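Protocol step 4 of 5: obtain the predicted structure for the target chain.
Materials: sequence only (see below). No template structures provided, no constraints applied. The aim of this step is simply to have a reference model before the mutagenesis design in step 5. Sequence pasted as it appears in the construct record:
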Amino acid sequence: MINDEKLMECHFHGFIPGPQEEVFLFLKRTELAKCQKTFYQALDFVQSLFDIYPSWVRIELTDRLYLWEAAATYIEENQGIFTPVVQIKKKGVPFWCAQEEILAHELVHATRIAFKENLFEEVLAYKTSRNWLRRYFGPIFFHPKEVVLFLFLLVGIWCYQLSCLFFFDDLPSLTLWIPLILTGLLIIRVIIVQTIFSLCLKKIRRLLKQPDKALGFALRLSDKEIIAFAFKSLDKMRKYIGKIQEKNLRWHMLALIYMP
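Step 4 output (C-alpha cells):
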C-alpha cells in the first residue's frame, strides 16, 4: 500500500486515483510521468483554484485541431498506462480568452484522466474561466461529439430550409423552432447541472476546516459523489467517508489532505 508521504506528493502534483483505478495502475501512472517544460502561469492559476500543480502534463503546440478548438486533451498509451497530452494551437487562440485560461482548462481535464465521466467534467474545467458567462454557460456541451452533432443538425436544418424556399417558396414553421428548442434544452440542462454542483460545493464548504479548498476537493469526486454531496445530509456523507476511506485510495487521500 502507498504511504501517506507519497500520497501527499501525488496530491500536490495532481495525480488523482480514478474511481475504478487499481492501486498498482495508479502508482505506475505516477512513475511514468516526468516533469515537462510547461507554462508556469497556467500552472499557478490551476493551483490557486484546485490545489494541484500538474507540471508533469505534456503540452504541445499544433496546427491539427478543429476550427472551433483552441486546445484539446488527448490520451496517449504507454506500457498499458494512459497519460494525457494537451495540444494548443500555434496560432488562432481566441481574442476573448487568454492562453493561460485555455491551458488551465485543459489541465483540469488532464488531471481527471482516470475519470470516465462527463456530467460535471466541463463544469469543473470551466471554473478556470475569468468571465462569469463562460464559467456558467461554457459547459453547455458535455462532450466534443455533442458539438459536432449540434452543428451537423443546424447545417442540415438550414439546408432543408433553403431547399424549401428554392423549390416550394414555402418554409415549414417547425424547422424555424427546432434550433431554438435544441438550444433551450441545452441551456436548461446546464442550469440543472450547475445548480447541483453549486449545492455540492456548499455542502463541501461545511465539511472542510478550510472552506476555500472546496473546489479542489470537488475536483477529486465522481459524478455520483457530487450528486450525493448535493442532496444527502452532511451526517450521511461523513459516515460514508468514514467507511470508504479505509478501503479506497482516493478517499484515503482526500481524508488525509482535507480532513486530517
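Step 4 remarks: The two ends are 19 Å apart (CA to CA). The chain has a mean pLDDT of 88.
Proceed to step 5.
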